[in-house]
Amino acid sequence: MLWLAVHSVTGPAPVAATWAMLAALDYVFFRLHPVERSSLNTFAMSLSIAAIAVVILLSVFLFRAGQDRLARLLLDPPPSPDARIRELTEARAALADARAAELRRIERDLHDGAQAKLIAIRMHLGLARGSRDAGEMLRMIDEAREVAGEALTDLRDLVRGIHPPVLADRGLAGAIEASALLCPVPVTLDLDLPGRLQPPVESAVYFAAAEALTNVTKHSGAARAWVRLRHAAGMLTLTVGDDGRGGARRDAGTGLRGIENRLSAFDGSLTVSSPPGGPTELIMELPCALSSPKISPC
């Protein structure tokens, strides 16, 4: 009903405006007779006629554009709460699937990595215990010690993939800084986070940043990258950019969909700007609060 009321007023408006302009044009062109005929008067009248014609054309276009915009504002329904609930449900389901896959990966890594090495250590120590040759015994113990070091490395890598110790010790900014140091591409950091986030949020944003830096290394061909981190008005904003070849897309298998799923589970969003030829910027926004102030080390 509101649209019909507005349309009944705005619909005839272009016609009325055009009629008024044509009436002005008719008056200037046919009814206005200057007392003195000169080239200056002729030029002035020609200029006024041209100006009226331009105003007629522009008024019709502007009226139609304004009417279309007003119709869209009145007729296009705002996003419904049910649609947003469905989006969040799908995002959380995708995150649950990703976590289940991560648990299977951890189980597989433990079985094929640390567990196999621990069995090898036990076998080496058993052989060393049963050996009567001192040299052979020492060799078996040395091999067991070497395998134990490899198992320890595997376990550390596994723990780092689940929840990096640096994230718990130094917070999100410190963890991103440590991840940037491991990136083969030089990374410029601009991190300003005056407090700590809730652990699940910290973990999600950290792994999103780490995945973005991995994309820079694997796919961008960049000479440099940058990371900016800010928190203002209850919104965390993380930007990861590079000067590479560009062309990053969510459907290209570059991990952007995984980043988006991590953020969507916390009502976050991912904006991708990556024109061909670069630069590429991933802007991640996440509504969250700081749970505690940042404590400077003594």
TrEMBL record:
CDD domains: HATPase_UhpB-NarQ-NarX-like (cd16917). It catalyses: ATP + protein L-histidine = ADP + protein N-phospho-L-histidine. Residues 204-288 form the Histidine kinase/HSP90-like ATPase domain. InterPro entries: HATPase_C_sf (IPR036890), HATPase_dom (IPR003594), Sensor_HK_TwoCompSys (IPR050482), Sig_transdc_His_kin_sub3_dim/P (IPR011712). Residues 102-167 form the Signal transduction histidine kinase subgroup 3 dimerisation and phosphoacceptor domain. One of its GO terms (cellular component) is membrane. It comes from the Bacteria. Pfam families: HATPase_c (PF02518), HisKA_3 (PF07730). Keywords: ATP-binding, Kinase, Membrane, Nucleotide-binding, Phosphoprotein, Transferase, Transmembrane, Transmembrane helix, Two-component regulatory system. Its EC number is 2.7.13.3. GO terms for molecular function: ATP binding; phosphorelay sensor kinase activity; protein dimerization activity. The chain crosses the membrane at residues 12-30, 42-63. PANTHER family: NITRATE/NITRITE SENSOR PROTEIN NARX-RELATED, NITRATE_NITRITE SENSOR PROTEIN NARQ. This is histidine kinase. It comes from Nonomuraea gerenzanensis.
